[in-house]
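Form P-L/3: holo structure prediction, ligand zinc ion.
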Amino acid sequence: MFPSVETDIYTLKPIGIVKSEYQEPADVPIKGGNAVIEIFSEYQQGLLRITENSHLWIQMWFHKADRDLLKVVPGKVNSDLPEYGVFAIRAIGRPNPIGLTLVGLERVEDNLLYVSGLDAIEGTPVLDIKPYYEQEIVFSPHTPYIRPKKREMRQEIFLKQALNHHQEKCAGLLLGVRMALIADDYFGQLNTSELKITVSGSACLADVLQGLCNARLANPPRFRYNDASELEQSVWEKDGKLLTITVKHEATNDELLEPADEQLFIINFQE
Ligand SMILES: [Zn+2]
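OUTPUT (holo model):
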């Protein structure tokens, strides 16, 4: 016997609140930012052993969101995109504006969780916290490509994705992000079975590009790596078109996000 449902209204009590530098939804960058989650004292025992996790799912109530929406254009990312149903994308506005964000847990002090990557404003009620488990990882899922109109936003997202995958902000990571941006200019979505990538150079560069393209070695075979000490290069192939991106010279870490593509790379495109 199922219990009878007497009401379609559920009561949620926030277990904490977000402390953030962002005051309005429009201020929050796509990649989120550093924030503190203050857990109310009556729920603090629920944090026991939480530091055994590096990443957490944070469920929030986006209290300023529009609840009357069922279809939206993801305009914050790109106003040229078509409409999507709110259940098909991660728009803030929806009938029950529950936010679900994966954050890094940096440290815990008493009832305060210091987190990174949280896309919530000051005062956002927190409903629940759950750990992120490795068995939840789907390496190469099918997703719509909600392509940001601005290249800087694409770079921000690639940087976040690359850091999640590679876990260090090394020269290989920055070169990989820059190469992925160029490949995105030519081919669009990088996570597609038609796009094949061959990387020569450092293991860091290869690891980052594999993570950014979600390219497996098999099923289908999309990724190849040649261990090379002299050359840092990625070759991208789709529909008979070939894009070759070769690093011109060694640069220091800080310089890799600033220069124009042509200063860093020799770019060759064959149709
Ligand atoms: Zn590295």
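COMMENT: The CA atoms of residues 107 and 114 lie 5 Å apart.
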